[in-house]
Amino acid sequence: APAAAPVIINYYCSSSRSVIPRSEGQWIDSWQGSTQGCGLGADFFMAAVAPLIQEARLLFPELIHVWYMDDPSATGTVSQLVAFVAWLSVRSRDYGLSIKPGSLAILVKPPFLTTNQKDLRVLQGNYGVELIDASSSGRVYLGTPCGAPAFCQDFVLARVAATAAKILRLSEMAHAIPHAAYALLTHGLLGSLTYLTRTAEVQPTSFRALEDAICGPFLEALQLPKQLRDLFALRLCHGGLGLADITVNARVAYETSVTVC
């Protein structure tokens, strides 16, 4: 925000020097805040845009606002969204943000596609907003699918298939480096799906390929019996291995997320 600009500018006014570990050493100067490795970078950004978010909520209280960093979204009537986009396209410039052409999309239910044609033409013509029929298609927002159930299902299945293939590759590696493969799975691959399970409303069986890969080749590579699968799913502090069964956790994660929101 303008008020915080002097502090933040002074904080990043000098470059961050990173060294490549060679015998002679080589320094790289970085002037970009995020690549400086500053742990406060995200906090600075959120503190800067917080006034913009608060202003949006006060001006458009009828909308449901969801913001993540510089990715805003809102739910409401088409006319309300037209006013919101018109305001945001101008006001965001004061915060150094700009709306890129083609970066906006609106999901509209079929009944409103015909009753709000004028407003929808304004969004498309003035702001380049992509119009999506929520009954037959969708859009990926912040890594989760929104829109038609079939679109969401296909997206999740594709993510699951890609992750399952990586687990199978880890299973091959586990024969030689079991500890490393286990760490990559529990601290990397499984965690990469946490956000998806919390936000995507799909059948838990959509994650079956992951469980098959873990319960089959991966446990076999670690020489662990399948009969103790429920025990391995427990957290380490409970005597397990933290190999969560996503087919069980996905529904709980989504319902909890909805309840909290």
Task: Give descriptors for this structure.
261 residues, alpha+beta, two-stranded antiparallel sheet, 11 helices, 51% helix, 14% strand, globular
Question: Topology of this structure?
Answer:
Layout (H helix, E strand, L loop, with lengths): L4 H7 L4 E5 L5 E5 L10 H19 L4 E5 L2 E5 L2 H14 L13 E4 L1 H6 L1 H11 L2 E4 L4 E4 L2 E4 L1 H26 L3 H12 L4 H6 L8 H14 L7 H4 L13 H15 L1
Helix pairs in contact: 3-5, 6-7, 6-9
Strand order of the largest sheet: 1-2
Note poorly predicted spans. none
Shape: globular
- Average per-residue pLDDT, rounded, comes to 82
What can you tell me about this protein's structure?
The protein has eleven helices and eight strands. The chain has helices spanning 5-11, 41-59, 78-91, 110-115, 117-127, 149-174, 178-189, 194-199, 208-221, 229-232, 246-260, and strands at residues 16-20, 26-30, 64-68, 71-75, 105-108, 130-133, 138-141, 144-147. Helix 3 (78-91) packs parallel to helix 5 (117-127).
